[in-house]
Design brief:
Length: about 500
């Protein structure tokens, strides 16, 4: 058997995309960023949409850089955020740009769908957290607006699955991404077709569901010609959902741990062998997503570093451009635990004017208005740390199992200030790293799909052998307990 293998991860986030080369040899993996490019949304055809042609072009540019180096690539796979979908036209013309989950149409249709179908029925079939941008409500919005693509398409695919298809794989939805739609049934491991039909969409548009690590076929002749990659290169559905990929790469052992995939979104949860679709789960606002081996990720979605990203963008529009190191330093120098936010509110989801929205929130809740850039960033970070505590306690309440360690993976694991805040706020040991958790998980699941690795345990063993981690011990500070009480009061406001 081949002892060295080469894999390409196309890892797309809300702000940027990367094409990353992974080389697996002797029980270790090395990674190299080959190409980075901005991702963007734009107002087009009546809504906020992703620029699909831009993504396709940049992916091919990145893969061509590998082709130019004559890298004998064994496989390639894409991962993205969840919920957004691309319709494939029946006439095989180019797919239109998909709506972005931050488009305002979802907030309008969401309560109508929940009233019509019923919260209990939706949750009993899907186990998914109720969020206005879940694919179920996007489909309802497509029907309500008379979106022409609904009747002109043969199938729809989540974004990462579409990009795997674009490269040459067959049109299928990998299960981790399928599980973000709110019409996947994790108990019976199939689409909850009735829910789709209740919002006016034919079940015939639903794609095949495949397990993580499925080989979808070789890259197309068109892709091979455009990139110079060997035509033997396979397209693999790794974990198409970025969180699924990053959790697969958590370097944990044993029991008593939770993960936090820290990036634009904070996704905090535990890995379980079974669904927890109970009334307590509904009450705590937990969700079920699927991971490698159909493990269940019992978790909560939190606004995440989106709050910081949007503050930074807001500062820049006002002529105060700063990098993340600078704003984090300013936050570390600001007075601790003055103003707190509720990161669970959907009102933070739209882009733009984050400073104004935080100011208004502080006024409405009788708190001090942040007076400096550092104070704005600090209130975001501290609020996230307190939200992590709430999530951990919610999960413990549902499962009855004590969580001692929080593993933070992804880009947000580089933020040492937030890591220490998370340890202090939760009273748990925080283990940070690897930074490129999503890409690493993507790459290693490809290797698993091709038979280079034999188990999930072996994947995690490779991660532990290949990347450094950093540990943060909780520091006792009575200010955090006082802030926790204030945070809990905030969570009772605004209909939470």
């Amino acid at each position: 058997m081949k002892t060295i293998s080469h894999h390409a991860a196309i890892d797309l986030g809300a702000e940027s995309g990367r094409v990353i080369l992974g080389t697996l040899a002797d029980g270790k993996i090395t990674i190299e960023e080959i190409h980075r490019f901005p991702n963007r949304t734009r107002e087009k055809d009546g809504g906020l949409r992703w620029d699909l042609r831009h993504l396709e072009r940049e992916i091919l540019v990145g893969l061509k850089k590998m082709g130019n180096r004559e890298i004998p690539l064994d496989s390639v796979s894409c991962d993205t955020w969840g919920v957004d979908i691309v319709y494939l036209p029946k006439d095989e013309s180019a797919a239109q740009d998909p709506f972005c989950y931050r488009d305002g149409r979802n907030e309008k249709i969401f309560p109508q769908v929940v009233r019509k179908i019923g919260k209990e029925k939706i949750f009993s079939q899907t186990g998914l957290q109720f969020m206005p941008f879940n694919t179920l409500y996007q489909l309802a919005a497509d029907v309500e607006s008379g979106r022409a693509e609904v009747g002109q398409s043969s199938v729809f695919l989540p974004v990462a699955d579409y990009l795997n298809y674009f490269l040459g794989g067959r049109p299928a939805s990998e299960v981790s991404l399928a599980s973000t739609t709110q019409f996947y049934d994790p108990k019976n491991r199939k689409w909850a077709e009735e829910l789709v039909e209740e919002v006016g969409i034919s079940a015939a548009l639903l794609p095949e569901i495949v397990p993580s690590g499925t080989v979808l076929g070789k890259i197309s002749k068109k892709t091979a010609q455009a990139t110079g990659l060997p035509d033997s290169c396979q397209v693999v559905a790794s974990c198409s959902h970025d969180t699924g990929a990053s959790v697969a790469a958590v370097p944990a052992e044993g029991k008593g741990w939770a993960y936090l995939s820290s990036g634009t979104w904070s996704l905090l949860g535990v890995e379980s062998d079974k669904p927890w679709m109970t009334p307590a789960c509904v009450e705590e606002g937990l969700t079920h997503e699927v991971g490698l081996g159909h493990t269940i990720r019992l978790l909560k979605n939190i606004a995440g570093l989106w709050l910081v990203q949007e503050c930074r963008r807001d500062f820049a529009t006002q002529g105060r451009e700063m990098d993340y190191d600078k704003i984090t330093k300013l936050a570390s120098e600001a007075t601790p635990l003055v103003t707190l936010l509720d990161p669970f509110l959907s009102s933070w989801n739209p882009p733009g004017e984050m400073g104004r929205r935080i100011t208004e929130y502080a006024k409405e809740t009788g708190q001090s208005i942040p007076g400096t850039e550092g104070a704005f960033i600090r209130c975001c970070l501290e609020s996230l740390a307190l939200a992590y505590r709430e999530c951990l306690e919610s999960i413990e309440k549902v499962t009855g199992e004590r969580i001692k360690t929080l593993h933070i993976v992804g880009g947000g694991s580089q933020n040492k200030l937030l890591n220490q805040m998370a340890a202090d706020a939760t009273g748990r040991v925080v283990v940070a790293g690897p930074i490129e958790g999503t890409a690493i998980g993507n790459l290693l699941i490809q290797a698993y799909g091709l038979g280079r690795l034999k188990s999930h345990q072996e994947i995690r063993q490779v991660v532990r052998a290949s990347f450094p981690i950093e540990t943060f011990q909780p520091q006792s500070n009575p200010l955090w307990e006082e802030a926790w009480k204030r945070f809990q009061k905030l969570r009772t406001l605004k209909g939470n």
